[in-house]
Amino acid sequence: MSLAHLPGRRRALAALATVGIVPLLAAGCGFQLRGPRPLPFDTIYLGMYEYSELASAIRRQIQAGSTTRVVARQEDAAVRLEVLADAKEKAILALNTQGRVREYQLRQRFSFRLVDKDGQEIIAPNEILLRRDLAFDDSQVLAKEQEEILLYRDMQGDLVQQLMRRLSSARMPDAPPKP
To answer: Measured between alpha carbons, how far is 79 from 62 in angstroms, rounded to an integer?
Structure first.
């Protein structure tokens, strides 16, 4: 056995030991990836056009991340999500020296409330507002249109995540005692 190979072997063993220890240390400290949060109700009715992209994304997220079922009739639901507003806006942020648009701001505004089957508010009217800036260039109109579509899609994903967090933090009213 040659002494020239020992430092290399020690380095390799040290590297392997470090790689094996890091996951153990991360697991031992209580670190845990954020997983799905259960919703505090069994069924929900989505008070929006059921074939919209947003409704489909919300439905997929509820089905994937909880045991809550999305029902087609509001009479069958423990709670209903009432959409008060869902709007996409595009505002000019900056102009160049020739007066042409240089930058836009894309906004998505979503207002909602959550009520139970008796009409009692569980979540008061609430608003989610998302913004993204979009640099614009006249020579790349098609590319910028595609970028705008992608930004709106990204905003929709963020909106669904924020909505799910707000729904999971809802406090259901206590049931009245039965006589």
So the answer is: 13
Q: How many CB atoms lie within 10 A of CB 149?
A: 10
pLDDT in tens, 11-30: 666 666 666 666 666 666 66
**Residue that wins the pLDDT comparison between 5 and 126:** 126
Tokens of 115: 């009520």
Under 8 Å between Cβ of 85 and 92: no
Q: What's CA 170's distance to the chain center, in Å? A: 16
Q: Which two tokens stand for residue 142?
A: 């098609």
Amino acid of residue 100: R
Residues in the chain: 179
- 10 Å CB burial of residue 176 (0-12, 13-18, 19+) is exposed
Residue in 55, 81, 54 with CA at minimum distance from that of residue 167: 81
Distance CA 67, CA 170 (A): 16
Amino acid code (one letter) for 69: R
Pairing of strands 79-95, 101-116: antiparallel
